[in-house]
Amino acid sequence: MQSLTPYLDTAFCFDSPGSLAQAGVLDARAAHVMGSATGHYRAQTVRQGLQYFDCHLHFPEPLRIDKVLPESLCIVQMFDGAWQHKVDGRLNHYDTGRLHVLGLSESLEAQDQLPVDSHARMAGVRIAGDALRELAQDDPQFHPLLALLADGMHFDQLPQCPSLSRLFQQLYRSPYSGSLRRLHYESLSLGIVLELASHLSGQALTPEPQQDGGRRDLALETRRLLDTSPTAPPSVAALAKQLKVSETTLRRAFSQQFGCSILQYIRQQRLELARILVLERKWQISQIAYHVGYANPANFCHAYKAYFGHTPGTE
């Protein structure tokens, strides 16, 4: 299998400006770095051909990175700040709060250029072309992603997708260390790749409740419908009618697949979305509470603390 990326597995935290060229972020044989940074960066290969990375960096001087990127697909969630690079002569912008995909069908030269005093907080998953084709060979659900590696470079900013954003938030704030962290990274990184494939396909699954595979499809389609409207999800009765099954069948299939009730999932979804909004620091706590469906901000703060272990104000 080909080399995934010039980006190496490493982790650092700079309290004062440190040289990125000496931090071991990039393979010197495939990249040249000029500039320094403060903050943290970490990257880990979680299985062959699949790497997770995240960073929160501030650049006290202009940053320039010249590199060669191999055939691969990169999925990036930009939490804060901005990033830009030029690939094959085209300038791509990564904007705050958005999901982006970069697909390369061959090795291409790239240049990252950021101005002085800029910053970036983001997380991403990189998967090699060979690794993606291997997944698609075993499971056709990954086929929509192969289209992103079809011709030269494909760069796109995705519409809002709360399920993908939540997975990136969970990765960024992983509470584990050592081998448990690697397993956590692997499971959620694969989940991101699969969620993106489902998001791009936009195809509804046909439920067959009488079979195990049908129950799984029913649960996955239910979750997809819930994720399309996290602040005003459809009722169980409406979902059952739309999917042409009984409410009992729907509840049972969802609970068996995800280990929680539909109501519990909705609550978790609202709170995960609320945390994203809290971290963005654009709204007041009461505004966030109303936005995610809580009529009483005090009830929202209580639920937030019960779920995350601390109040939203301490974020």
Written overview of the protein:
The chain is of the alpha+beta class. It has helices at 129-138, 143-146, 162-172, 178-201, 212-227, 236-243, 247-258, 262-280, 285-291, 297-308, and strands at 10-19, 31-34, 36-47, 50-59, 63-69, 72-81, 83-87, 90-94, 99-104, 108-114, 118-128, 153-158. The protein starts with 9 loop residues before the first strand and ends in a 7-residue tail after the last helix. The strands form 2 sheets. Strands 1-3-4-11-6-9-12 form a 7-stranded antiparallel sheet. Strands 2-5-10-7-8 form a 5-stranded antiparallel sheet, with no helix packed on it. It is built from 10 helices and 12 strands. It folds into 3 domains: 10-198, Jelly Rolls; 204-259; 264-314, Arc Repressor Mutant, subunit A (Orthogonal Bundle), CATH 1.10.10.60. Pfam families: HTH_18. This is AraC family transcriptional regulator. Keywords: DNA-binding, Transcription, Transcription regulation. It comes from Pseudomonas parafulva. Residues 220-315 form the HTH araC/xylS-type domain.
Can I get a quick summary?
This is AraC family transcriptional regulator. It is built from ten helices and twelve strands.
